[in-house]
Amino acid sequence: MAERDDEELSNRYRALGREEPSAELDAKIIAASRRAAASRPRPGRWMLPLSLAAVIVLSVAVTLQMQHEPAAPEAPAAARPAAPAENAAQSVASPAPEQQGPAAAVPVPGPAAVMGRPSREAADRERFERAAPAAAEERARQLSAEESPQRWLEQIAELRREGRDDEADRRLAEFRRRYPAYRIPEATLERVERR
Amino acid sequence: MGATDEQLMLAYAAGDAAAFETLYARHKGGLYRFVLRGIKERGIAEELFQEIWMRVIESRARYAPQARFATWLYTIAHHRMVDHWRKRGIVAVPLEPDDPDDPAPNEPTADGAREPQRQAETNEQLARLERALQALPPPQREAFLLREEGGLSLAEIASTTGSNEEAVKSRLRYAVAKLRGALDG
Fold this sequence. Notes:
Shape of chain A: rod-shaped
Order of helices and strands of chain B: HHHHHHHH
Strand content of chain A: under 5%
Largest sheet of chain B: none
Largest interface: A-B, 30 and 37 residues
Structural class of chain B: mainly alpha
Helix content of chain B: 55-70%
Strand content of chain B: under 5%
Number of helices of chain B: 8
Number of strands of chain B: 0
Order of helices and strands of chain A: HHHHHHHHH
Oligomer: heterodimer
């Protein structure tokens, strides 16, 4: 009932007239809308500052990255000589079918590769896989030795005990270059110097 | 099936001028009558109508279709109307005689002259309705016009006018009762 009354009222209301804006008013508004669409100033206003900000952020990021860079390549560099040395000595076999990953692709197959037997392949692979962590350990030892002169000297004494005098000499010379003012205690000196 | 109002507004914001023209054609009549019947002074109503569309054009980049385009459009219109009322003090718009330059389809014509008495009664009834509409307090008139011209729901009228549904329902109830009373004579 109320809905029918509302509908009746709506019909009467519509009968009051369906006035529309004049053609002149339409033209004014449409012209303004076209001018705005053609100019599209908004994106342009912030595009330039945004691009500049992006360039600055990128530059800072790259600079920071480069400052931290030197530490990273040393580990692979230390690992590199160890692995090929062993591989060359053992005349690495060709990669087995299951060795499709990047690690397997590193050892370059030598002329003897085609003669490789599965057992040797497995042994070589194991050795190769162990080589990188071993090199990393060696590098870690060097780093820790460099941090502490005493530990460095202990390592030299160790080399001396093992009879690796040339290496001990070289490392002792390196130590003295690095710590020219360091006074090696008498007892230690006996253990690190060549007799 | 044409694009929705919201799609058209987004297309216009992206630079498609034709999208605005479609949108304008859809809403210009309802919005014009909403403003005209709320203000009743044609010159001022046209000025406000133009300002509302200019605001739509200027705000195109900030438009986000969280609600119907019509709700957004009439919210802009509501704010412009409130500014106008505030300048004049919030009172019922004074009654004015019909604009002689405003041709209404139900005015007596050569065809309408066939039933002169009935037509005269209808005209009288419509004149009473129009006077009653103008005599409504602005919030009641606005709620009624938003429903009739904007096609807005109770919730949308509440959102447009910054009110709540209960208040809108009450305004509509009063408005309808008074207008119906005017029709009954």
